[in-house]
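Annual report, structural modelling task.

Input specification for the alpha-D-glucopyranuronic acid complex:
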Amino acid sequence: MFQAELQKRNLPDLFLCPDGTRVSDRAAWETQRAYWREVLLENEYGQLPPVVEPAVTVTVNPVTFAGKAVWETVRFTFSYGQKSHTVPTQLIYPRGAKGAPFFVMLNFRPDIPDRYLPVEEILDNGFGILTFCYQDVTSDDGDFSNGLAGVFAEGERRENSFGKITLWAYMAMRCMDYLETREEADIHRVAVAGHSRLGKTALLTAALDERFAASFSNNSGCSGAAISRGTCPDGETTKVIFERFPYWFCPRYERYVDDPTTLPFDQHALLALIAPRVVGVGAADEDHWADNDAQLLSCAAASPVWELYGKPGLIAPDRMPAIGDEHTDGALGFHMRAGSHYFSRTDWLVYMRTMNKHIVK
Ligand code: GCU
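The model returned the following structure:
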């Protein structure tokens, strides 16, 4: 079924090189990988700002989580040219942790805990967390003068200038830089996670930064995990997402959005950039807007890249998603729970099981 559905959608061939040759081994894929990275940055998300080393200040918060954990507020101040901006983040880890696996979690709110972030349960499973509120990086609107958008503003936006998703991903990468300085974290076992627009961001983060061992993309849908060709009738299309949220993307995306068959890529390329590392694509049965079939098909289309590395990608029955699916035996995982569009505890349990199966062991 996957192959028939994918054939109808006629996605760009991940292995077809610009010079007309085809990728047949890992070395050739590394070159092709760099090509897809540029294609996505130039045409969809926009280029990253330069890496700036922030000044960091740390405040330890009062004892919380029944004394089991340490919670620090870590503020990153980015200065570039005449401008600077401070982003607060929250670092929480099991007391006494050394070399613990970690989640960098992009969230909608700064709260600890938060309804999308069951902190105590994550800690009890042995993971640390470094999280920030995305709007503390830059606002979720078309204003490119505030936060990191303002710090890195280049005057008039160009065709390939960063959209907001790229800036939120940039901050997640700076979190990884910081974790490299902390003995509580094992930097080889860090995952990035987010929901919806921040699930799109979690995929882009790991796609661009190979230090992340895993990416968990919850209900990310259009311009995230879901392929854009052949959206289901009640699913979000590239046209609609660009009408409502043009600032999430680079201006050049507009050229293609009315007709996704003109896109020089599809979203399976975003997943493929993360291979052979671990990916978890989370779907919710009632979340038709995120197009669950298109998310699973995207995994099926990207899977051969994992196989090139001699690792199983998607291991799943050859049918569309059903409630209760948890296909995480391969490194490219997919699950679908009952219910609507949100980051549930059930999703977290799947992502932690996936980490334990493939990375923590
Ligand atoms: C809107 C948008 C989606 C996005 C979602 C979210 O529904 O259309 O693309 O994923 O917001 O971030 O919650």
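The first strand starts at residue 55 and ends at 60.
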